[in-house]
Amino acid sequence: MVAELKDMDFHINEFHGGVPAKDSENYENLISEMWYLGARKIERGEVRVVGESMGLDPTTYDQLTNRRTAWSRNGKLIAERKEDMKSRGVDSPDRADAMIGCIMCGSHMTGALTSEAVEASQVPASDFTAGGVEF
């Protein structure tokens, strides 16, 4: 799908979760860093993921809550591999990957948007400026 979108002149940044993490001292790879930090954002209420009655379907909820984390041999956090999930009868977390990607692959991962720039900006009040965004 990415190749087709590129062929239609859309600028697409591909994501490869197996590459080194931005914080390579604490995380085994980028997908592990994204999953751990994305979950912390949800836990702290920075991003509110609403229940099924508000639009979050059971499949996405299950995927968000079924991926395990562990410690790698070198003491870094690592998200459960999809192959390991499959071996214990859990489907690939494709929808959850997409949601975590939406939460984590923004400008804060690239450093394009700093806290100083946010504080200095003049943005009208919206759901995004009220301290959290609902998915």
What does this structure look like?
- With 135 residues, the chain is mainly alpha-helical.
- The protein has helices at residues 2-7, 30-43, 58-66, 82-87, 94-104, 107-110, 115-120; strands at 47-48, 69-71, 77-79, 133-134.
- The strands form two sheets. It has a two-stranded parallel sheet with strand order 1-4. A two-stranded antiparallel sheet has the order 2-3.
- Helix 2 (30-43) packs across helix 5 and helix 3 (58-66) packs across helix 5.
- The radius of gyration is 17 Å and the shape is globular.
- The model has no long low-confidence stretch (mean pLDDT 81).
Fill in the keyword field for this structure.
135 residues, mainly alpha, two-stranded antiparallel sheet, 7 helices, 41% helix, globular
